Amino acid sequence: MTNGEEQIVKSILQDFIDDSVPEYILEGARDVVNQGGVQKLDLKKREQYWDIDGQVQGDDFQNYSSEIGLNLNDKTINYYCNCPDSFSGVCRHVAATAYKMLKSLDSESSEEAPLPRTEWKQTFRPFFATELEPEAGRHYIIYRIYPELGRLQVAFFRARQNKSGISQVQNEVTLAQIVENPDWCDTSPALPGVAEQIGHYLDYWGHKVEIPAGLHSWFFRAVKGEYYLYLRESDQPVTHRIQDHAAQAFPGAERRWLELRHPSGP
Fold it and tell me: Are 156 and 174 in contact (CB under 8 A)?
């Protein structure tokens, strides 16, 4: 590429990020890039046009395809993403693709460094990691996650935290109860609002619900502070080797982004 073209592209991308990407979207895009979530970045150049294609890991374990077109002559940009959030404006996947390309152009070397192999647990650490321990005597919501082909179901329970761990007496709770009892959600204050959206979308407020595809991201963000997220009926947290189950639910996700090594595994 010529230095002149590079400067024009950098200017277009920087203006796009500054003027068109909301701050909260940009913050999420930076996190995606810093955690290696932009898994692929392809550049195709034509006369006075650059096409940038990205594959970006979403919060719901899906890989989304983002496309950015740059008209160097008119200094304009257009974009597209196949994620559920794209209808509302610039999504994190488009923003991450633009931010990643801008960083690449700003780097001293034009050779892209190999992407590090990142474990799923580290990639999604902000969604599931908590530094504090559960407090004995309090009650916590327990989430049992049921991934299937093309769908994601969650069942809700509530139990008391004992000094030795969570009680085995786990009572079923409904989506309606979560909405009606926000005091149950100290560790996930956004959950009642997300639960209400899910209930209205499904017109169902029961104990086990299917999370609509467009709300996957919102749901996982809402429960990022929770302690008890289990896979199906097991007592193993979802951060223990769920690659096969997640691959069934979200076949587009690359296995290396879903792989967690169980402590007793190879």
Answer: yes
